[in-house]
Design a protein that fits this description.
Residues 261-306 form the DUF1731 domain. It comes from Amnimonas aquatica. This is TIGR01777 family protein. The protein has 312 residues and is of the alpha/beta class. It has helices spanning 11-21, 39-45, 47-51, 88-111, 147-162, 183-193, 212-224, 242-252, 263-270, 275-278, 286-290, 300-309; strands spanning 2-6, 31-35, 55-58, 72-75, 118-124, 135-136, 168-174, 176-178, 206-207, 209-211, 230-234, 240-241, 282-283. The strands form four sheets. Strands 3-2-1-4-5-7-11 form a seven-stranded parallel β-sheet, sandwiched between helices. Strands 6-13 form a two-stranded parallel sheet. Helix 1 packs across helix 7 (212-224), helix 4 (88-111) packs parallel to helix 5 and helix 8 (242-252) packs parallel to helix 12. The structure holds NADP nicotinamide-adenine-dinucleotide phosphate.
Length: 312
């Protein structure tokens, strides 16, 4: 397949790109075009795939002509939601890097002579907002006041609007991705490793997590199964409370998880962004379970053990 990927240079891309491009296989693999603001950096990272013609790097969609033919588009680009406080300027950056970019992708797809058969586009369980211990299947209603809802909802709508007629759209409402070298865990490990980790707030809020290798396997399935379209909760089958998360991680590291960070301290230090740690989403991957998708890491402990075993 020829696949165009935005956001392929990030944490999810770190496993997705080599798997799709067939890094371990000289004969098999897709041909990938990655949109990135830093092509030199990406070229150094994927030097052998670039040399073998499996990965091409572009800085702008303007580099794509009308005759360029992609079978699929995977759209993951976005400024890090947890990287900086949500000032008005930062909200504009979070919005532009997802929604404006998705709209540009739509402009290109409309111009292209050959339309991709599928658009797989990102979103997050933050779409649901703060929902306590309610079980959230894909058709659950959202807490529409949450900023994460508005950002994800605009992103989902932009993806649906961007797809030309006849292009399947699959939306990934992704949970906290657990894997080596990135994501939330990269920030937590130094603290938990020193025995300074613990639950945040009441600890009763739910964390919907998913292993990076399951994210990649699900994307592979969505690329090839022509029956699949619409929204998918891309989360593990057993979400945990924040306190269980802290205990499981600390237990695997053989450290205590006693230091609770009070809600008031989080609100004071993180402002609105504290919602990322305090809001509760107990999402269930109902559609993946209906498809009998076999999770590689069905429990948080499996996902954490796998991650810790691959830590460099
Ligand atoms: N990791 C998670 O736990 C998680 C959970 C739910 C949803 N998601 C969503 O899934 C997507 C991928 O996640 P990730 O963890 O792989 O992200 P990541 O490591 O932060 O990587 C972000 C990607 O987006 C691109 N990007 C960032 N800002 C951009 C901008 N202003 N314009 C164009 N491209 C930009 C980056 O490309 P360059 O720097 O190369 O240009 C990079 O490839 C993100 O949109 C994220 O919100 C992630």
């Amino acid at each position: 397949m020829d696949i165009l990927i935005t956001g392929g240079t990030g944490f999810i891309g770190s496993l997705l790109v080599p798997v799709l491009a067939g890094a371990d296989d000289r004969d098999q693999g897709d041909r990938l075009t990655l949109l990135t603001r830093h092509p030199e950096r990406a070229a150094a990272r994927h030097a052998s795939l670039v040399a073998r013609g499996r990965v091409r790097l572009i800085r702008s969609l303007d580099e794509l002509g009308r005759d360029e033919a992609f079978d699929a588009v995977i759209n993951l680009a976005g400024e890090g939601i947890a990287d900086r406080p949500w000032t008005a300027q930062r909200r504009r950056e979070l919005h532009a890097s997802r929604i404006v970019l998705t709209e540009s992708l739509g402009d290109w797809m409309r111009r292209a002579r050959h339309k991709p058969s599928v658009l797989i586009s990102g979103s997050a369980v933050g779409w649901y907002g703060d929902q306590g211990n309610r079980l959230l299947e894909e058709e659950a209603a959202a807490d529409t006041g949450a900023y994460t809802h508005r950002l994800c909802d605009d992103w989902e709508k932009a993806a649906l609007a961007a797809a030309p007629e006849g292009t399947r759209v699959c939306i990934l409402r992704t949970g906290v991705v657990i894997g080596p070298g990135g994501g939330l865990l990269r920030r937590l490990l130094p603290l938990f490793g020193l025995g300074l980790g613990g639950p945040v707030g009441s600890g009763e809020q739910y964390v919907s997590w998913v292993s990076l290798s399951d994210v990649v396997q699900v994307i592979l399935r969505l690329l090839t199964d022509r029956e699949l379209r619409g929204v998918f909760n891309l989360t593990g089958p057993r979400p945990v409370t924040n306190a269980e998360f802290a205990q499981t991680l600390a237990g695997l590291l053989r450290r205590p998880a006693l230091l609770r960070v009070p809600t008031s301290v989080l609100r004071l230090t993180m402002g609105d962004m504290s919602a990322l740690l305090l809001d509760s989403q107990r999402a269930l991957p109902s559609r993946l379970l209906q498809l009998r998708y076999n999770f590689l890491h069905p429990t948080l402990e499996d996902a954490l053990r796998w991650t810790l075993s691959r830590r460099g």
